[in-house]
Amino acid sequence: MSREFYRISRLPPYVFAEVNTIKARARAEGRDVIDFGMGNPDSPTPQHIVDKLIETAKDGTAHGYSISQGIKGLRKALAAYYDRRFNVQLDPDKEVVCTIGSKEGLASLAKAITRPGDVIIVPNPSYPIHPYGFILSEAAVWYLAKDLNSPEPFDLMKELKRAVRDCNPKPSVLVLNYPCNPTTETATLEFYEEVVEFCIEHNIWIISDLAYCEIYFDGNPPPSILQTKRGREIAIEFTTLSKTYSMAGWRVGFAAGNPELVGALKKIKSYLDYGTFTPIQVAATAALNGPQDCVATTRELYKNRMEVLVEGMHTAGWMVEKPKASMFVWAPIPEKYRHLGSLEFSKMLLNEAEIAVSPGIGFGQYGDTHVRFAMIENRQRTRQAMRNLKEFMKK
Questions:
Q1: Which residue, 34, 104, 276, 315, has fewest beta-carbon neighbours within 10 Å?
Q2: CB within 8 A of 243, min separation 6: which ones?
Q3: What residues contact residue 176 under an 8 Å CB cut-off, 6+ apart?
Q4: Nearest Cα residue to 210 out of 224, 220, 221
Q5: SS3 content of the chain, % helix, strand, coil (to 5)
Q6: Which residues of the chain are under the pLDDT cut of 70?
Q7: Are 159 and 194 in contact (CB under 8 A)?
Q8: Three-class secondary structure of residue 359 per DSSP
C-alpha cells in the first residue's frame, strides 16, 4: 500500500542528506574529507559536568520518569543565568520551561500556539526548524527575504512593516535568531526595542532563538530580547547548552519569557514527553551553576578556528567577512561558480577539494548564493582544508 502523508508532503527534500551521502561514499573510499558541514561541537563536555552526570546516574532512584517542564533546580539555574548575564529576573515557575534541546522546544511551541492558516513571519535564509516547525503545524509562512544579490542592505524592520501591511490574514508570530544561523548576523538592544514596540502595537508574538549568545568574538556579548522594557509582554526566548558547554547530544534547552507562551509550551509538553533524563538535568544544573571558565575557553577555541579559516580563505582568494558571533562562516560562492547554485558547488568542493560544507539552499531559497562553514575542525585540519582550497581555486 502506498499513500502520501499530508504533513510529510509539506516538507521539501532534505538537501543536506545529499551532501552527507557523497561525504560518506568518499570516506568509504578512503578519502580524507575535512568536514565543516553540521554544526556539531567536537570538544568534550567539561569534566565537572560529566562527573555530576555519572554521580547522579548511580542513584537508582533517578531513573524513573522525569518532569516535562524540567526539575525545579534546573529552572532556577536558568533564571540565575539570566540574572547575572542579562540582568533579567525570571520566575522559574512561570517564566521558564526546560526543553529537549531548543529544536524540540521550538517545534512543540509551534504546535501549541498555531491554528491552521495562521501566518508566521520568518527571515529567509534561516535555520530550518524556524519555518518548518510552523509549516508542520499547518501555518503559512511569510518570508522576510534577505536577497543577498540585492545592492540594498537588508532592513528587517522595513520588511516587517511591509509584511504587516500586505499580509492577509495578519501575521501572529515573528521568529528572530541573533546571532543568526546561518548568516552570523547580530542584533543590538536598540533593534530589539524597536521590534518589541512594533509587535506589541500589532499583536504579534515574538520567538527569539539565542542559541549562540555565548560564542562571540568582538568583545560585545549579544543581548537578550528580554532585556527590553516590554519584552516579556510579547516574547519568548530559546537557549541551549549545546554549543556553550559542548553538550549537543545531551539535548538540554530552555524557553524563557512571556508567561502565557511559556504556559502553552508547558501544557503541550505535558502531553508529549516526560522531559530529559533526570541525571542529565542535574548535570545541566551543575553546568549553569558551576565554574564558567569553560565557557570562555570554548569561545576562544572558536575564535582561533575562525581566524585560521577566514585567513586561509582570503589567502586562497575567497573573500569572506569575519563573523562577530556564532560558530559559522557564511561564505558567498565565488563569482565564477555562482551559476552552479549552492548544492552543486558544495558537491564540487567535496569531490575536488575534500571539503564538506552546508549548501545555503538548505536554509531557504535566498541562501542559494552562499555556503556555510561550521568551525568544527581543529586548527591543523582547518589549515589542511585551506591548502586543499587554495589548490581548488587555482584550477
A1: 315
A2: 39, 41, 211, 212, 214, 215, 298, 327
A3: 123, 187, 195, 206, 207, 208, 209, 225
A4: 224
A5: 50, 15, 35
A6: 1-2, 13, 147-151
A7: no
A8: strand
Torsion angle in degrees (nearest 10) through CA of 378, 381, 387, 391? -120
Answer whether 252's CB lies under 8 Å from 288's CB.
no
User: Which amino acid type is present at position 316?
Assistant: A
CA distance 237 to 254: 8
- What distance in Å separates the CA atoms of residue 76 and residue 95, rounded to the nearest whole number? 10
> 354 CB contacts (<8 Å, ≥6 apart)?
26, 31, 32, 33, 34, 385, 388
Q: In what order do the strands lie in the sheet with 328-332?
A: 328-332, 370-374, 358-359
Buried b / exposed e across 271-283, counting CB within 10 Å, b at 16+?
eeeebbbbbbbbb
- Residue 83 backbone phi and psi in degrees, to 5: -65, -50
Backbone angles phi and psi of 57, in degrees to 5: -65, -25
CB of 237 closer than 8 Å to CB of 210: yes
143 contact partners, CB below 8 Å, separation of at least 6: 121, 122, 123, 124, 131, 364, 366
The pTM of the full predicted model, rounded to 2 decimals, is: 0.94
Domains in the chain, ordered, with CATH?
Answer: 6-44+294-394 (3.90.1150.10), 48-289 (3.40.640.10)
Beta pairing, strands 140-145 & 355-356: unpaired
DSSP 3-state assignment of 34? strand
| Chain segment 43-80, per-residue pLDDT in tens | 999 999 999 999 999 998 999 999 999 999 999 999 99
Residue type, 62: A
Burial classification of residue 351, based on how many CB atoms lie within 10 Å of its CB (0-12 exposed, 13-18 middle, 19 or more buried): middle
In this structure, what C-alpha cell is assigned to residue 30? 578512503
* Distance in Å from the first CA to the final CA of the chain: 50
On whether the CB atoms of residues 3 and 327 are closer than 8 A, the answer is no
Is 391 in a helix, a strand, or coil? Answer: helix
Note the pLDDT of residue 150: 67
Contact 383, 311 (CB under 8 A): no
